[in-house]
Design brief:
By secondary structure, the chain is of the alpha/beta class. The chain folds into two domains: about 10-75, Chemotaxis Receptor Methyltransferase Cher, domain 1, CATH 1.10.155.10; about 85-275, Vaccinia Virus protein VP39 (Rossmann fold, 3-Layer(aba) Sandwich). It has eleven helices and ten strands. The chain has helices at about 10-20, 30-45, 50-60, 65-75, 85-100, 115-130, 150-155, 160-165, 170-175, 190, 225-240, and strands spanning about 105-110, 140-145, 160, 180, 185, 195-200, 210-215, 240-250, 260-265, 270-275. The strands form two sheets. The protein has a seven-stranded mixed sheet with strand order 6-2-1-7-8-10-9. Strand 7, helix 11 (about 225-240) and strand 8 (about 240-250) form a beta-alpha-beta unit. The longest helix is centred in the first third of the chain and has 15 residues, at about 10-20.
Length: about 280
């Protein structure tokens, strides 16, 4: 099969298009990434040349092609309980503190990919309920959003391969929370049903999502420009209740919004609380 050819001119056009659509900034000399991810999109759309694809995308005449392009360029690998320590802090400190004076807790996982992060939180909640640490009258809601409709659909179904489960999930939790169905494993209903998946472009408004006590926006800001990062963090602040917590990825920071958040260090991580 012939590899997709992307000229310098077309790569520049595509970079501009992608940043305008979803904020992702492709660096220089990343043609190989476009070639590896976009070949299938062209084949399925029966488009022979990358230039023709760009012409169609820029004409805005094909929303399905736009979505498939975004899906191809934003699908990223993810892990269960990624980095471990944010989930330990959530379980041991943050959630118990909120449970002391709240009967309804809302959590948002932004850029959730195929659901490993929100489902990791839901498993922790289920474990705490089983230990009697969460009253049955307490409502805990998890909203999971992503720009990719394809990956959201997969996450909502809750089916995972053995390989995917091996990326951060303990054998104990696999046995406790998954059921073998055919070649895959599926999350049990009470863990899956706590999470609501909905499509969201981080460029859009967040006001319709409501207010949250905790937001996870981890390992996604690294793909955006400094200006867009600041815009996202400002909009997230507007959706956090006073004192609400924000978790970022290990290599991400507040990008000059220190007046909006107070940084709190817990070993070995950092959480930001909204003023």
């Amino acid at each position: 099969m012939t590899q997709l050819q992307v000229s310098e001119k077309d790569y520049s056009r595509f970079k501009e298009y992608l940043e305008k659509q979803c904020g992702i900034v492709l660096g220089d000399n990343k043609q190989y990434l476009v070639q590896s991810r976009m070949g299938r999109v062209l084949r399925e759309a029966h488009i022979s040349h990358f230039t023709d694809l760009l012409n169609k995308l820029e004409s805005r005449s094909n929303s399905d092609l736009r979505q498939k392009t975004i899906d191809a360029m934003t699908t990223n690998e993810t892990l269960w309980f990624r980095d471990v320590h944010p989930f330990e802090y959530f379980q041991n400190t943050l959630l118990p503190g909120l449970l002391k004076d709240k009967s309804r807790i809302r959590i948002w996982c932004a850029a959730c990919s195929s659901g490993q992060e929100p489902y990791s939180l839901s498993m922790i909640i289920e474990e705490m309920i089983a230990k009697g640490l969460i009253n049955s009258r307490v409502s805990i809601e998890i909203l999971a959003t992503d720009i990719s409709s394809e990956i959201l659909s997969a996450g909502k179904e809750g089916y995972y391969s053995r390989l995917a489960l091996g990326r951060g999930l303990s054998p104990k939790r696999m046995d406790q929370f998954f059921e073998k169905q055919g070649l895959d494993w599926r999350l049990i209903d009470k863990v899956r049903n706590r999470v609501k998946f909905t499509q969201l472009n981080l460029k859009d408004l967040y006001s319709g999502l409501g207010k949250f006590d905790i937001v996870f926006c981890r390992n996604v800001l690294i793909y955006f420009s400094a200006e867009f990062k600041t815009d996202i963090l400002r909009k997230i602040h507007g959706q956090l209740n006073s004192g609400g917590a924000l978790f970022l990825g290990a290599s991400e920071s507040l990008s000059g919004l220190k007046d909006h958040y107070e940084m709190h260090q817990y070993k070995p991580g950092i959480v930001y609380f909204a003023h």
